[in-house]
Amino acid sequence: MPEIFKSRFKESLRIKLLIGLFTVALIVLMFPKAESLEFEVLEGSVWINDDLIAPFSFPILKAPEVYRAEIQNAKKSVYPVFSKNQLQVDIIIDSFKVYSNYLIGTFDKTLANPADTIVNPTFLSYNSYNLFYNIYNQQKSKRSISALKLDIILLKASESLIAVYKTGVIETLPAENVRDSIAVRTGNIDVIEPIKKYHSINKAKSEFRNNLQNLGYSAELESAIVEFADHFIIPNITYNAEFTNDEILQSQNEVSKYAGIVNESERIIAKHERVTKDAKLKIDSFRSAKGEKYQEQGSSSQLFGKFLHIASLITLLTIYFYNFRKKIFYDNVKLLVFGLMFIFISLVTHLINRVVVPAPLQFLIFVPAASMILTIIFDSRVGFYSTVIISLITAALRGNDYSFAVMNLFAGALAVYTVRDIKNRSQIFRSFFFILVGYSVGVVAFGLERFASFNTIMIELAFSSTNAIISPVLTYGLLIFFEKLFNITTDLTLLELSNFDRPLLRDLARKAPGTFNHSMTMGTVAEAAAEKVGANTLLARVGAYYHDIGKLISPQNFVENQLSENNIHEDVAPEESVEIIKKHVNEGIKLGRQYNLPGEVIDFIPMHHGTMVIKYFYEKAKEKYDDDKIDVEEYKYTGPIPDSKETAIVMLADGCESAVRSIEDPDQEKIENVVDNIFTDRIDNGQLSNSPLTLSDIDRIKDSFKNILIGQHHKRIRYPNQNEIEKGIDDELDE
To answer: What is the pLDDT of residue 1?
Structure first.
């Protein structure tokens, strides 16, 4: 996206309003439907309002857990429905007889065309097939010493099979529907019968074998017949899931949602009366009935009320940003972070509201995670005030639940406290204990206040513990998501980058020690100045550390890294030296991207030079060439110029630190003159015109630089016009 469009998006008032309206509208849509939101009561609390009199008759809704239990009982009362299929039995017996004839026909063909090897084309095992074949062969050759005839054997087997199916073979019930009795449906009539009345598959096979034993067959022949018949023993009484589900649905539909009725003008609860379980049912039922009664005629007004409710909360935070955090107020990307966070927490609240289970799932709304993320991305005050707003929004979505708001506020505030001065990502996980303490105090306080049972308090504490465990994990993951998606550089990231064990800084110290020392000194100077003008001190310091990483590619090309007196630029034309010097900017940007440095840190690499002229080589060129052959633009850095307080401070620090380091026999007067000259030169060249620094800011930065640099100076090579610079003449060298 071009920079101009990025700038317009970040600062556009229309985008700002759209973010606000979109956030409010989505949250409003997550409010409970058809419900009056004027009060929320807890069992055990005291009704402090006037007597609540029913303005109209309404039914009393059963407690959700009671209704669910009755629904489950209705399901359990339904017997699994089975379909009895006599046609299936006829098909099975006919199939048995047809296959018997096929088997005998196969044997006839084999006997008519004898071969050395008997081929078995059936599903029978080799032994069973050979046994049947031998019996049939003896039968046909009239050499049988017994009265066994295969056709008679198979006929007797079919009769035994018919006897089994007279009882019926039932399909195995699904595990979740195992019952002692079933409903057997024949036509439109269901008959409740014990399941043991019918044969299971295994029992049917066992019964078939028992029938064969009465015929006096050998064990080998019995096994062959059983193997043959097993392929035809299948259930004729089958479980019908569709019929069963229809019966369950009908049974559940007959369960009433109501436990009674409150008549018009009947008192629901008296003032100062304790809210019992029955009273709470009546109050909740009245609230629901009132919402449904006035939904059509008053839905638009209620919707507008919800909109004003949420808009007021969002506006409070916006006013805070406008007065105390203008950087956030004027940056739509940062406002979008807040909008998405509010929507995310509201969505979790909405989804949990829709889950009806006898458990305090509201404690799985991860408000502390939002508190920590916003604190790490911005600061602790922003995190705390955002926690207040988020707690009020979640309470609103739960029917203006005051106690829930207080518990979230307490837990969220403690979560903010744990990460207010975070130094590394693992520190996020120490918030577990504080979040748990916050919720525990709230749960115990409100539990004792409303006479909650010990079991209720312990269950709520268990769910609070789950929140305390998950919130840090969620924070860890979402923080990375927000950093990548919105290109946000948090102080946590900057702290990690300031570690000297980072690969780039370690390489800089080893390969370019002069540049490294210069960068470290600049970091100290820039950080102190940033503090004076309210800039981000950490960003200024880290920007100074990484501003010259491009010199890692060819450190010997820069004088501060040349250990010998030989300077490669002495044997190179000025225009070539300029290209060598300018190249380190592009190399630095490439390295920054390669090592995934944040965009805000990479900006320091080109901006600390701006569009300044590289005067040392420009002056050499003027000495070597005629003026008409020199294009000053070729001796300038390509920019851009600084666009923030931090990049402007680093530009000034770079020029001042470099120039002061090169002073021979430095004293206070010389250093002050050099600093004044550098500042004047940068201002006159328009290098600070895009930065938000004011004249008073510049004076404070200048004073800060002077105080630090007077005690920090190192020998550097003498530059052209150095004597004039030290006397206060407007000239300066920039490399």
So the answer is: 44
